[in-house]
């Protein structure tokens, strides 16, 4: 049986509950694609990208939580390995969804700053986890 720390188990449980939010994003996309919610082509593409990134990164993030338990990492480095991808799973989709908000928008707004910040968390999380796995 896989042994998870209390923190890892709680994090995984919370992240699993976020799937309901991702599911509601899918319902929103259905409304956009059927014309019940007006959106520009730019907004449609950003909404699709945000939804896809959320699903993929949450799945990868759950795997990282579990794999981080198999490392010798401690403190900040363990936190980064376990949750860096999950932070990116909030920031990157947020950049897509919030970046496309606004009536008749055809270009991203100021929320596009979430992309590089999310990318840094994604890269830092997976690299830290890989190093931790190599060291263990």
UniProtKB/TrEMBL annotation:
Keywords: Membrane, Transmembrane, Transmembrane helix. The chain crosses the membrane at residues 12-30, 51-70, 76-101, 113-135. It comes from Myceligenerans salitolerans. This is DUF423 domain-containing protein.
